[in-house]
Amino acid sequence: MSEVLLDREAAQRYASWFRALADPTRVQIAELLARRREPMSVGQIVAAVGTAQSTVSHHLKILAEVRFVLVEPDGNANLYRINENCLTCFPTAADVVMGRPVAAPGEVPC
Amino acid sequence: MSEVLLDREAAQRYASWFRALADPTRVQIAELLARRREPMSVGQIVAAVGTAQSTVSHHLKILAEVRFVLVEPDGNANLYRINENCLTCFPTAADVVMGRPVAAPGEVPC
DNA sequence: ATCGTGTATCGTCGATTAGCGATGATGTTG
DNA sequence: CAACATCATCGCTAATCGACGATACACGAT
């Protein structure tokens, strides 16, 4: 019984989410995609954040690996958009780490 | 004038918070301290997480640098406790990055 | 087929990180 | 005083990271 600690598996999942946002450029990209809910091309994001194209592509890959953003090929340009599930499920993770009891214990929507 | 992007300063502050929780051991420590709202000694935390004492001390330093946890010397043992401000202010950061409009624009409690 | 555009990937650099044992600093207790 | 307990700090290693330019790939248009 006495589970004094968050189980390692959940801790690792949450840590991977936080690590995906552990860089200011990725925070800007995520916030940009989250506010503008429509898909954006890499070129648009590059123009917005002002770092090199290869670097932005790298950051988008990291954000996509944890499924914060979703990729959708559109002809030549690839489009990235925020994963709507994360809009609620990521702040919930922050709540859990801060000791807030999670409302529905059955879920893992992401 | 159309600020399409979260300003770099805020992005860096949020990224530093997320980076502090970008490790599963630190997630466990933070969640442990957040649930048990009372101060804990390093030895107690070491016993709970099961990694080396020097490693736990290192993680606590990282958590203290962003003021997620507060230090309080108590005789021989040093006591660590969660920063109560972060209980609300960190989930709020997660909301902001996920595009939620921040309620009170006057802020920065941490 | 050839060009041009838009992205992803590669290779590399310097910097940072998690982890550990060993050592050092500081305060408590006999 | 001397022994002890508690914790921080010091190397050290292996791994990861952010950033960039250069290159490769995929596709629409000519």
- Under CATH at level 1, the class of chain A stands as Mainly Alpha
- Domain count of chain A, please report it: 1
Overall mean confidence score, pLDDT of chain A: 91
Number of strands of chain A: 3
Major β-sheet profile of chain A:
3 strands, antiparallel
> What is the molecular shape of chain A?
elongated
Output the number of helix runs of chain A.
5
The computed structural class of chain A is: alpha+beta
**Uncertain stretches of 5 or more adjacent residues of chain A:** none
| Superfamily (CATH H level) name of chain A | Winged helix-like DNA-binding domain superfamily/Winged helix DNA-binding domain
Helix percent band of chain A: 40-55%
If interface size is counted as residues with C-beta under 8 Å from the partner's C-beta, which chains form the largest one?
A-B, 39 and 39 residues
Q: Approximately what portion of the residues of chain A adopt beta-strand conformation?
A: 5-15%
Roughly how many Å is the radius of gyration of chain A? 16 Å
Brief descriptors of the model:
55% helix; DNA-binding; 3 strands; 110 residues; Arc Repressor Mutant, subunit A; alpha+beta; homodimer; three-stranded antiparallel β-sheet
Walkthrough of the structure:
The structure is a homodimer of 110-residue chains. Chain A is of the alpha+beta class and 110 residues long. Chain A has one domain (8-96): Winged helix-like DNA-binding domain superfamily/Winged helix DNA-binding domain (Arc Repressor Mutant, subunit A, Orthogonal Bundle). Chain A is 55% helix and 13% strand. The first copy, chain A, is built from five helices and three strands, in the order H-H-E-H-H-E-E-H. Chain A has a three-stranded antiparallel sheet. Chain A is elongated, with a radius of gyration of 16 Å. Chain A starts with 7 loop residues before the first helix and ends in a 13-residue tail after the last helix. The relative contact order of chain A is 0.15. The mean pLDDT of chain A is 91. The first copy, chain A, binds a DNA duplex (30 and 30 nucleotides) through helix 4.
